[in-house]
Amino acid sequence: MRTLWIFGLLFISLTEAYGLKYFPENFVVAKRGDPVTLTCTTKTDGAVTWKFEDDEIDIDDNIQADGKNLAVSEVADIMLGEYTCWRGNQKLSSTHLLMEADEGEEFDSLIKCRAKSYDCNFSCKWTNSRYTAVRLGLGPDCSEGGKSCHWVSSGVWQDGGFQLELSHTLSPYTEESTMLELTAEAISDHQIIRRTKRFYLRDIVQPDSPQIVNCQEVEQDLNVTIDPPSSWSTPHSFFSLEHEIEYTLKDDGETRRSLSALIPKRISKLRVRSRDSLVQSTWSQWTPWKNVTY
């Protein structure tokens, strides 16, 4: 156990500095203080030896080898990391031992998801920098930890988070009755969390900003023509948007808002935002202010 302790302390100091930046192909998750058994997954005849971070493990009361299995009676932080089984000088397989993180952050505090339209894609952003590897999966296979789950893994941390793109199979032309079941897993210093949330696609729809086409004088008013964003679902007659106009009056500088395309004529500037008119989704971001001259 002394050898494992020394190398465990060294490895923990390294992972605190760099973190595990990927999900290992094979890993086992255990709770602190619980027993766990690691298995050499490659078929082989005869005895195998086990190494922890490339150093042979000393067998003692807490760690016992039994054929192709390595049994740990009580998991501790210093035991987290990569275990490999060997036959002579041949490496047979590798398994990472990870620890289930203590209960902490809720799903909504860790990740935000958004769909620009009702097509087959949506994106999620993970913004907690303490975690160095993140992956997302849809469906019960992922929430139950099934082997057939299709995971989407994080790439490079940029713009304050991991950005992940997912695809779903919901039809945009029927009433939405099926909820999406999204599971997130994240690693921080060989500790792993798993969170699952169920929601409707309509709950995360937020269109891109619309386009202001022109402003036409109509007696004492301006008629503002607005087009949906290019990313919005088509046909637009089926996927309708409502628009809100914010404008500033020339006379007194007062700012007002209108859900009508007809606004007062004497304005100095305006901007527009949109949302799904049927489910009243989250408003888009405002367009940049547009100066009005005539």
TrEMBL record:
Localization, UniProt: Secreted
Keywords: Cytokine, Disulfide bond, Glycoprotein, Immunoglobulin domain, Secreted, Signal
Name this polypeptide is given: Interleukin-12 subunit beta
InterPro entries: FN3_sf, Ig-like_dom_sf, Ig-like_fold, IL-12, IL-12_beta, IL-12_beta_cen-dom
Entry similarity comment: Belongs to the IL-12B family.
GO cellular component term, pick one: extracellular space
Record text on subunit structure and interactions: Heterodimer with IL12A; disulfide-linked. The heterodimer is known as interleukin IL-12.
Tagged with keyword Signal: yes
One Gene Ontology term of the molecular function aspect: cytokine activity
Boundaries of every Interleukin-12 beta central domain copy: 109-188
Signal sequence, start to end: 1-19
